[in-house]
Structures are given as C-alpha cells and as structure tokens.
Amino acid sequence: MLRAHDVLVVGGGNAALCAAIQARRGGASVLVVEAAPKFYRGGNSRHTRNLRCAHDEGNEVLTGPYPEEEFWDDLLRVTGGQTDEALARFTIAQSKELWDFMTGMGVRFQPSLTGSLSLGRTNAFFLGGGRSLMNTLYATAERMGIDIVYEAEVTALDIEDGFFTAATVVHDGRPYRVAARALVAAAGGFESNIEWLKEYWGEAAENFRIRGTPYNRGTLLRMLLDAGVEPVGDPKQCHAVAIDARAPQFDGGIATRLDCIVFGIVVNREAQRFYDEGEDFWPKRYAIWGRLVADQPDQIGYAIIDSRSVDLFMPSIFPPIEGQTISEIAEKLDLDAAALERTVAEFNAAVQPGDFDLAALDGCRTEGLTPPKTNWARRIETPPYHAYPLRPGITFTYLGVRVNARAQILMEGGMPSANMFAAGEIMAGNVLGKGYLAGIGMTIGSVFGRVAGTEAGRHVRN
C-alpha cells in the first residue's frame, strides 16, 4: 500500500477521514497514513462526544434552531475576537451541511445530554461517542477503496517552492518514499510533545496532562513550518480544561474532565480563589480553566463543593475527597486549614439571596468579593464536603498552519500552495485564536476535512 497515490492524507482522525472520503468521491486514489496502531486510531476524535453545527430548525436530536449569527456570537465571545472572521463565518456556514454529511455515511446520533451541559439545541451527540464515529468513518473509507496504513509515521516531506512531491513514511522499521499529487495534512497539534510545550511553558509543562492521543507530537507540523509554511496561532494557546489531577499523563479522555467547578469554588495551593467560577454556561467557559490552573503555583487547583451539588454534574471516574469539615478537607488536600476555612467563610458571607437555576444565568452572586462569583453562587455549608484536585488537561494546541477557505496551506508571504491542504487541529488556530466552544473542534475538522479532500481531488483531476 505504501506506493504512489493521487492524494496522501497524513493523520487518522475525523478531519483526515472526512478529507479522504471526499477526495475518493472525486475519483482520486487515496492513501491514509496513521501513526497510531489500529486500536488507537482516530487521534483525539475517538475521545469526542459531539459536534456543534448551525441549523435553522430542530430535528429528532437537536431541540431547536441554532442560527449562524448566534453561533458566530458564541464564538466571538469565547475567543475575545481572536479569530479570522472570514474563515470563522465560512466554517459556521458550512457546518449546516454536516448533519446530512455525517448521517449519509452512517453516523448515528443520540438525544443530547440534559442537565448542566446546556447543549441540546446546539450540539449533536454521537451515538457511541467518538470511537463509534471513527469506526463508522473507517468502515466507509474501506468500502470506498481507500488504502489505510497504521503505525506509519511521516518523517520527511519533499517540498519545493510550496509544491509537495513525496513523503518519507516509516512502517515496520523501513522507510518508504510515497509520491502523491496532493497532500492533506491532518495530523493534529503538538500537545503530546512535552519538550515542545516546554519551549513556551517552561517546566510547568511537566505538570500538564494530555487528555487525548499520545501520538500528536507535532512532527508533521514542525516539518511544514520548517519548509516555509506560514504559521498561525499563539503557541501558548490551546484547548485546555481542568481535569482530575489523578488522571494518567496521556489518553485519559473525556472521563477525566471535571464539571463541578460552577457549583462551588476553586482554590490554589495557597487556598485562595483566583477566578469567577460562574462566569458563563459551562460549554462556553469550561475550556478556560485548564489555562487558569496552569497559571497557578505548581499548576494545581482544588474544586470544593458541598453535598447539595454532588448529583448536579457528571463526576470524574476518580472518587471525590470527602470530609465532614472544611478543616478535614484541607488536611486531606495538604492545604493550610486556617486559610481554607477563611476563604470558604468569606465566600459564604458574600453570597447573596437568589433563585438557583442551572438552566439560566441565574444571577446568584457574591457581593464585595474579589474575584466575584457572578452566577450559581450558593453557600458551601452542607457536609459532607467534596473536593477534587485539578490539573491542566491539554486537548490540542492552536499553533498551526495558515490556510484559506479552500483549505490550501499558505506559504510565508501568503502564497497558497498548489497541492498542499490542511484540516483539523493542525489548522484550527485560524478559527480559534484563544478559548473554546464545546464541539467546535469537530466542526472545524469536519468542515475543513471536506473542503481539503474536495480541493485535493479537484487538483488531481486538473
């Protein structure tokens, strides 16, 4: 299989498969090289749960309309305006086609989860999660005659004046020169490369957990940048959430995420709060917490709730640390007991009366407290108390390659490559300058995967 093809797709996640399928539909012969073993194929996509898409009306899964302009407003808020507006609006407009595209390939969806996620109207949840999604896409690709090779790592690219001719692919310990008429780069970011992360974060990166695949080491990204591709994105920006500190270094996935933050308080090693836990609905703000924890001493935080909130969120796979008193919680967390008791007491004293409502920005807030808590503030006073240790959980990095709306990779100076295209996390920084919106990673990967495959196929035909 490691021979010349019309289109070479590097990567094995959702974006890569969307690209491969589209290129094959255009009549091209397609080879997909995936660095991971077959069992771990799919990159971070196998850990995903849902896809955000604009739509004009609800359906059997989505509970109501999600107009393009509302999607744009949501994205603008979480990125603080750090996005390429033209590409972002293009992504949102194209997302309207994803429901039919996915269901047409046999992908099945389930009713959205209820409760604190607030995603029933905006996001479609994959039945069986990301692994089921990837199994369906791979089955489709195989039926279409797309060649797929696992444990195949690209170690070199032949690129001259922005034109790709071949890649060196190592498989079973042997290097192969694989020529192709078009390249689709869909191999993710560099979040699993701790040494690369340390170039920007320093030793703090040693305390990061990588939520997804250990195979996203940025090898392809580095080669493209070294070949004169124009970079995009701040290397310190990433999709980073607060996860259970007891999670494994790599591949813990969605189960290690903690959704309890809005229901209590979060303190650092000094037992001090450092951010508003109730700033916005969780799907719009949860991805800021990884960076917030990363900026704290020793890159650790502690979420503390009382017994009234235990059943309001999806817990981690790790049990909470329990105590009948705040002092007992402090002792178990190795925090200064007097400092934690003082922080909780000051928080409780600042909580104002209000009607607690998970489904709304309820205005249950603190007064005279810095930082404030602006929604869902309730006194922490009903034992047993529960605590979870937090670490930064990196999903993917935003440093990537710049592209245009045809998914063409741009060389330094802005000239588009004639036959190199990109999709997924390796180019997500074009849309995500900072922040994150639940499900938008899959949106970007699906939209630009389809575009990259279509354009690669068109280049081959021409």
Automatic annotation (TrEMBL):
Keywords: FAD, Flavoprotein, Oxidoreductase. It holds the Pfam family FAD_binding_2. The gene is tcuA. InterPro entries: CobZ, FAD-dep_OxRdtase_2_FAD-bd, FAD-oxidoreductase_2, FAD/NAD-bd_sf, Succ_DH/fumarate_Rdtase_cat_sf. This is FAD-dependent tricarballylate dehydrogenase TcuA. One of its GO terms (molecular function) is oxidoreductase activity. Residues 6-440 form the FAD-dependent oxidoreductase 2 FAD-binding domain. The keyword Protein biosynthesis does not apply. It comes from the Bacteria. Its cofactor is FAD.
